[in-house]
Amino acid sequence: MTQEQTVAIAGLGAIGGAVAKALLSGSLPGLKLVAAAARDEMKARQTLGDLGREIPILTPEALATHADIVVECLPAALFDDVAIPAVEAGRTLMVLSAGALLERRALIDRAKETRAKILVPSGATLALDGVRAAAEGEIKSVNLITRKPPGGLAGAPYLVENGIDPDAIREPTLIYEGPVREAVRHFPANVNVAAAVSLAGIGPDRTVISIWADPMIDRNSQTVELVGDATRFSVTIESVPSPDNPRTSVMTPLSTIAALRRLVAPFSVGT
């Protein structure tokens, strides 16, 4: 019998909570939830429910000592707390805060030395397969257009610093346009898809993102436009915002669950 791989989740919010419930339900054979990290243990216990009453709630730093796979679902400011110990321990680190990787090239280099693996799920975009394949040839340009209901951008440092009130936006408004590297600094909770696309393709300095606040829509929209020597494509996905956190999409935890399933699947489809 194949031994189960153990999983620990850092953060039990809209993404991590959904992933934890999937693991506890038994819908991911070959994977077992063995630990979690959360700021509020009482709330974490409510999320895990009866099936997770034996799951220990640990610090983010401790997760790497308990599991083969560590899933990072934390605010970007806490990324190092879970990522560095996981890489040092040679674990598989599944990263949801993809933007945090842009300034941590040394962590990726360290993973080569410790034989750790750093994986980034597709999240709320359909384009990563295409971008990764196109990158084996020559990519000339990659542009992303992100549209969110204004509330989905609330609290972003760029809005705060520029005195932009999302509740006052009454028509589609271009909030920001520029390289992904800068966008991640201005919108750390909103552009992880863009960071993932840039890492899969031509990098965060050449990948350009436009961020729109659009009160006329009720879904988060991501469009990826790529021009390369082998292909030219435009892919748009409209995702339902999470009822627990409008900054992310319902597709993001589903993508994470699919990525975990692929780790132990005997058969998989896609790049």
Query: What is the string of SSEs from the N terminus onward?
Result: EHEHEEHEHEHEHEHHEEEH
Global geometry:
globular
User: Uncertain regions: pLDDT < 50 for 5+ in a row?
Assistant: none
CATH fold-level assignment of the largest domain:
Rossmann fold
Radius of gyration: 18 Å
- pLDDT average, as an integer? 94
Strand order of the largest sheet: 3-2-1-4-5-6
Keywords summarizing the entry:
Rossmann fold, Dihydrodipicolinate Reductase, domain 2, 2 domains, 6-stranded parallel β-sheet, 5-stranded mixed β-sheet, 30% helix, globular
How is the secondary structure organized here?
Layout: E1 5-10, H1 14-25, E2 31-37, H2 41-48, E3 57-58, E4 69-72, H3 79-88, E5 92-95, H4 105-114, E6 117-119, H5 128-134, E7 139-148, H6 157-161, E8 173-179, H7 180-186, H8 192-200, E9 208-213, E10 220-228, E11 232-239, H9 251-264
Parallel strand pairs: 1-2, 1-4, 2-3, 4-5, 5-6, 7-9
Antiparallel strand pairs: 7-10, 8-9, 10-11
Report on the structure:
Helix content is 30%, strand content 24%. The protein is α/β, with parallel strands linked by helices. It has two domains: 5-123 and 251-264, NAD(P)-binding Rossmann-like Domain (Rossmann fold); 128-239, Dihydrodipicolinate Reductase, domain 2, CATH 3.30.360. A six-stranded parallel beta sheet has the order 3-2-1-4-5-6, sandwiched between helices. A five-stranded mixed beta sheet has the order 8-9-7-10-11. α1 packs across α9 and α3 runs parallel beside α4. The two termini are 28 Å apart.
